[in-house]
Amino acid sequence: MKIIIIEDEKWTADDLADTIIQAAPTSEIVTVLQSVKEALTYFGKNAAPDLIFSDIQLGDGLSFEIFSAIEITTPVIFCTAFDEYALNAFNANGIDYLLKPFTLTSVQAALKKFNNLRNSQPVNNDSYFQSLIKEISTQYQPRQTAILVYYKDVIMPVKLDDIALFYVENEITHLVTFDNKTYYPKSNLDELEKITGTGFFRANRQCLLNRKSVVNASSYLSRKLSVAVSIPFHDIITVSKEKTPQFLAWLSGHP
Predict the structure, then answer these.
(1) Residues ≥6 apart with Cβ < 8 Å to 139
(2) pLDDT tens across 23-46, in order?
(3) CA separation for the pair 96, 19 (Å, rounded)
(4) What stretches of the chain show up as alpha helix (H) in DSSP?
(5) Which residues contact 3 (CB under 8 A, 6 or more apart)?
(6) What residue ranges define each of the domains in the chain, with the CATH number in brackets?
(7) Rounded Cα gap, residues 247 and 245, in angstroms
(8) Which residues are within 8 A (CB) of 246 and not within 5 positions of it... i.e. 6 or more apart?
(9) What is the model's pTM?
(10) Is the Cβ–Cβ distance between 183 and 213 less than 8 Å?
(11) Which terminus of the chain is less hemmed in, N or C, by CB atoms within 10 Å?
């Protein structure tokens, strides 16, 4: 079985290739493509493989753009860190996905599903890919560049890039900047999570982190992670065992 990987992170591509060969030793990794542009050029000149593993966000765009621009009937397994809600679109249309960070077990399951569906009609629907591009693109981009806060009698904007984290204490939402100033936005964390985009991660019910504020993460009780941030903070910020894979994928730059 000939397989092509579309992935712009070399270490991720190498890890996936090794895992695929471990799961299916007779497979051949034909090539690794690192961008939309490179993939369009490659598929314009070369035969399609039996199967494609593709990241969603590449350095120059979304991989959906490849499949909507060129007619490729090869089944695609998308590698993604999206949550279950965002993945409903894939389920509805029969295209498989692989959650990052992947494991030998999850790769084996994806390959098993591919083999079971090998003789079924592949999805090749331009309007479907266009709708995915529109839907997923909105999740990559912040809908606002600043948050309005109320300071004394003044309403002022605070740029998202200047915000280290949000947290809730005594049912009050706090906004803390990188220069350690605290403000009080009117929005709750659920609303702020939607506004801030993929540059921020909901570590737990009380805390929403800017990726730029994270210094490191270490093991904590009950297989949780403890997150150290670059500003003074009075509480231990933890990420649950269930959310750890998503957090690590987000921390590595994959929304």
Answers:
(1) 82, 86, 197, 198, 255
(2) 999 999 999 999 989 999 999 888
(3) 17
(4) 10-23, 36-45, 64-69, 88-93, 104-116, 126-140, 189-196, 244-251
(5) 20, 27, 28, 29, 30, 49, 50, 51, 52, 53
(6) 2-140 (3.40.50.2300), 146-251 (2.40.50.1020)
(7) 5
(8) 81, 83, 201
(9) 0.52
(10) no
(11) N
CA atoms within 13 A on the CB side of 178: 12
Q: Tokens for 125, please give them.
A: 């629907």
| CB contact set of 119 (below 8 Å; sequence gap of 6+) | none
Joined tokens for residue 54? 């593709």
Cβ-based neighbour number of residue 124 at 10 Å = 13
Phi, psi of 46 (to 5 degrees): -125, 160
The 10s digit of each residue's pLDDT in 173-205 is 999 999 999 999 988 998 898 888 788 999 999
**CB-CB contact of 90 with 78 (8 Å):** yes
Residues whose CB is less than 8 angstroms from the CB of residue 18 and which lie 6 or more positions away in sequence, other chains included? none
DSSP 180-211: --EE-BSS-HHHHHHHHGGGEEEEETTEEEEG
Length of the chain: 255
**H or E element that contains 2:** strand 2-6
Task: Please tell me whether residue 34 adopts helix, strand or coil conformation.
Answer: coil
In this predicted structure, the answer to whether residue 207 has a pLDDT above a threshold of 80 is yes
| Tokens describing residue 211 | 């990726």
